[in-house]
Design brief:
Blueprint lengths: L1 H18 L12 E7 L7 H8 L9 H13 L3 E12 L2 E10 L2 E8 L6 H7 L12 H15 L6 E7 L6 E9 L5 E8 L6 H5 L21 H17 L6 E10 L4 E9 L5 E8 L6 H8 L9 H8 L8 H6 L7 E10 L2 E9 L5 E8 L6 H5 L12 H14 L8 E6 L4 E7 L7 E9 L3 E13 L11 E10 L4 E10 L7 E13 L2 E15 L7 E16 L7 E15 L10 E11 L10 E17 L2 E17 L46 E14 L5 E13 L11 E12 L3 E14 L2 E14 L2
Parallel strand pairs: 1-3, 4-6, 7-9, 10-12, 13-15
Antiparallel strand pairs: 2-3, 5-6, 8-9, 11-12, 14-15, 16-17, 17-18, 18-19, 19-20, 20-21, 21-22, 22-23, 23-24, 24-25, 25-26, 26-27, 27-28, 28-29, 29-30, 30-31
Helix pairs in contact: 1-3
């Protein structure tokens, strides 16, 4: 722009004397008789340049028009210099020359001195590419962009020099940037002065990004970022309000840089003021709910230290819907709001008066579904807790979204409800969904120490419709599975169909037929069928359900030992499972829990069949979100436990081998083996003659981080787990556990299914080799 100003001044100095007249005489301007252009590169059009300038032959050569012409051409940012000069003047008028210097074009960006940031990091941060024009201001903009990039890395004193070199005949230049990165500062110390009621450590809890680093904290960073430091100062101010310090303020803060130690020392001076306690809390304007009920939701009492965060969370919206406003939002009062007012009574006390604006009560006119291209409306509607004619209920919408998420038919991040006002008392609720593939074709391959290589081929249609099998979308589940093992040591065929909503009610009905063969020191073939019936409960809440099954199977056992009953046996099995599942997603749950109590028994003791045993199981796990990124939980802690016990119903009972407990590895390998990473497959619980145990326990802690949630989940994990199998109740030692820890990864890839691997380290002896630790073990899963 400086060049443009010089050009304007030149034009004025050149032309104004031509137009000078007396003060009383109107100025007279010569006519433009001709315009030529100099300095254009090959291929440029002269008439286009003249048109951009705004000048034309036959018009008066007014100074203002000449100045505007220069600015018009300069605004094109394709020239590094623009001048308009008078070539000559005749009786016809004045002849003008537009002199242009084309802006250089970028040939290469050459970087020197960058170590902290790679060439690609820097090049990708700027918006100039090879062949782009370089206006005079562009070099400055590029330097500032790179400086900001370094500042994000905590390097605030980076210096950058730029130079255009090596022009060629086509006006291409190299932009050479010489970078002096300076120092990457870390936080050496943070000192707070002026605080008397809270110590430094208490206040520094408010700092989320600016922290010192102790020698053992290898997982944290102490890099100093000035912008994040300023954000932490705001966090400290909020911390004051959350700890009763209504008058507290930051008087000054100082950041001192030490180039020798490459550390910063931060000094913050604060004024605390007195701690402020709550003298009274009252609601005004409430007519729908009594004050006592609102106060119970608020959970703030006389004598409490004032806490702005708690007041906000318990008054307005919180994740658990236990706030006072939710009372209204769940009962039709869509526009209800509450505004707290603080009245200081003395230096150390405050009254809180909360004004309630209840507004109109809204009913739902319509509930609409948008975006479902496969799943039928009825399948979606049966998971919804909002009905036309009901009063608006925010909790019901949230519960509906959870139900749709558990279906796993839709893109989780695109499940969005819309509440559309119709008039002053009615709204429409629209659930926007985006379908995704849920059917899986799996070809699983694994290695189990007991069975060698195992694999399976199968297909699971999770959104099947038996009335329209080609289209699907009916919410039924059809599964076919064929598993095989090395040298025919394992073979399984299974076909099942489940209708989760029978006759439009939350009652499931299904069947399963199977034929399995396993050879492991003994051979067993099982052929049978099972009918399943389930029902969602309303009490204690609708997360509970019960499942019952009746199964009949024929077992053919061939063994050289005496533990198992030889020959053909039959079993009629009755089973019941009471469970509660409140997970928000079954693939990558981020909140909620799941537990189940199961009981299976055969009827041999009644004279029906030749097998009699009872098997009791219990499992529980819970997911807790620890970190949100972009509004979505990404870091999740999962804690779980699992217990099992099986025994005969008569003194001379022989329990079928597949009903005993085995443990180790990834859970592949034929029988219902409980996984325990860090140990060989099926290695725990092998007692005499390869017989499993009657008691099992397993504990799990797993930290999961989602790299991606859509279009398919990808997450990494670390785990610590322990478990064991005991021969009977008399040998149970709850402290004798096989411990392991490790890491892994999971990928749900449709239509293949789950792909995963784990690397676990077993801290205790390998049951197959008791003289040494189990050590590192690799576990692979594909399709399971």
């Amino acid at each position: 722009m400086r060049c443009a100003n010089r050009a304007v001044a030149f034009v004025l100095a050149l032309f104004v004397p031509l137009f000078a007249t007396s003060q009383t005489e109107a100025p007279r301007y010569p006519v433009i008789a001709g315009i030529t252009v100099e300095g254009l590169t090959q291929g440029a059009d002269i008439q286009t340049v003249i048109a951009y300038s705004g000048l034309r032959v036959g018009a008066e050569a007014r100074p203002d028009d000449l100045v505007m012409a220069i600015r018009n051409l300069w605004a094109r940012q394709t020239f590094s210099d623009v001048q308009i000069i008078k070539e000559r003047e005749t009786a016809l008028g004045v002849f003008l020359i537009i002199k242009l210097t084309p802006a250089p074009r970028l040939r290469n960006l050459v970087l020197h001195g960058n170590e902290e940031l790679s060439d690609d990091d820097i090049i990708n941060s700027i918006d100039k590419r090879k062949g782009d024009l370089l206006a005079p201001i562009d070099a400055y903009k590029i330097r500032q962009t790179i400086k900001r990039k370094y500042a994000d890395e905590g390097m605030l004193f980076t210096k950058i020099e730029s130079e255009l070199v090596d022009a060629d005949s086509m006006n291409f230049f190299d932009l050479v940037l010489t970078i002096n990165e300076g120092v990457q500062y870390t936080v050496g110390s943070i000192t707070i002065t002026g605080n008397e009621q809270f110590d430094d450590a208490d206040m520094l809890d408010a700092f989320t990004e600016t922290k010192t680093k102790r020698w053992y904290e290898f997982w944290t960073s102490a890099d100093f970022d000035y912008d994040k430091y300023k954000t932490d100062l705001k966090n400290l101010t909020a911390w004051f309000r959350n700890n009763g310090l209504l008058d507290a303020e930051i008087i000054r803060d100082t950041v001192m840089y030490n180039e020798e130690t490459e550390k910063v020392a931060i000094e913050i001076e604060v004024h605390e003021g007195p701690k402020v306690y709550i003298r009274s809390v009252r609601f005004v304007g409430n007519t729908v709910y009594p004050e006592d009920e609102l106060l119970r939701r608020l959970d703030i009492h006389r004598g409490d230290l004032y806490n702005a965060k708690k007041l906000q969370a318990n008054l307005l919206v919180n994740e658990t819907q236990t706030d006072a406003t939710s009372l209204y939002a769940d009962n039709g009062y869509l526009g209800a709001s509450m505004v707290p007012e603080l009245k200081r009574i003395a230096d150390d006390s405050v009254d809180i008066e909360i004004r309630v604006f209840e507004g109109e009560r809204f009913t739902i006119r319509r509930v609409e579904i948008a975006g479902n291209t496969k799943t039928r409306d009825r399948v979606i509607r049966r998971e919804l807790y909002t009905r036309p004619g009901d009063y608006f209920n925010r909790s019901a919408i949230i519960r509906s979204l959870r139900g749709l998420g558990v279906l796993n038919y839709f893109n989780q991040e695109k499940l969005q409800p819309q509440v559309l006002p119709v008039d002053k008392t009615k709204v429409d609720v629209v659930y926007n969904v985006e379908e995704r593939s849920t059917d899986t074709f799996n070809a699983s391959v694994g290695f189990a120490g007991s069975f060698g290589f195992t694999g399976s081929i199968g297909i699971t249609l999770n959104n099947f419709d038996i009335s329209d099998p080609l289209r699907g979308g009916g919410g039924q589940i059809l599964a076919f599975q064929w598993e095989f093992g090395q040298a025919s040591r394992i073979r399984t065929f299974q076909l099942s169909l489940t209708e989760p909503w029978l006759f439009g009610e939350p009652t499931s009905l299904g069947f399963n037929i199977f034929d399995t063969y396993q050879n492991y020191g003994f051979s067993i073939r099982r052929t049978g069928a099972q009918v399943n019936l389930g029902r969602r409960f309303r009490f204690p809440d609708d997360f509970f359900r019960g499942d019952w099954s009746v199964g009949f199977e024929r077992q053919d056992v061939q063994s050289t030992g005496t533990y198992f009953r030889q020959g053909v046996n039959t079993a009629l099995t009755l089973a019941q499972v009471i469970s509660r599942t409140s997970y928000d997603n079954m693939i990558f749950p981020t909140t909620g829990s799941r537990f189940a109590v199961s009981l299976r028994a055969t009827t041999g003791f009644l004279g029906i069949g030749t097998t009699d045993f009872a098997k009791l199981g219990f499992n529980f796990d819970v997911a807790n979100p620890l970190l949100r990124i972009g509004g979505n939980p990404r870091l999740v802690l999962v804690v779980g436990s699992e217990f099992g016990y099986v025994d005969g119903l008569k003194a001379d009972t022989t329990i079928p081998p597949q009903e005993l407990y085995y443990m180790g590895g990834n859970g592949l390998g034929g029988f219902a083996i409980t996984p325990l990473r860090g140990y060989p497959d099926n290695s725990i619980g092998q007692f005499s003659n390869g017989v499993g145990g009657r008691v099992m326990a397993r504990y799990l802690t797993e930290l999961r981080f989602a790299l991606s949630l859509e279009p398919f989940p990808i997450y990494v994990l670390t785990f610590a787990e322990a478990g064991n199998v005991w021969a009977n109740l008399g040998t149970v030692d709850p402290f004798s556990l096989k411990r392991a820890a490790g890491f892994g990864m999971r990928l749900m890839l449709m239509p293949i299914g789950l792909i995963g691997f784990d690397v676990g380290y077993g801290f205790d002896s390998n049951p197959l080799n008791p003289s040494q630790r189990s050590g590192w073990q690799f576990h692979f899963q594909f399709g399971r």
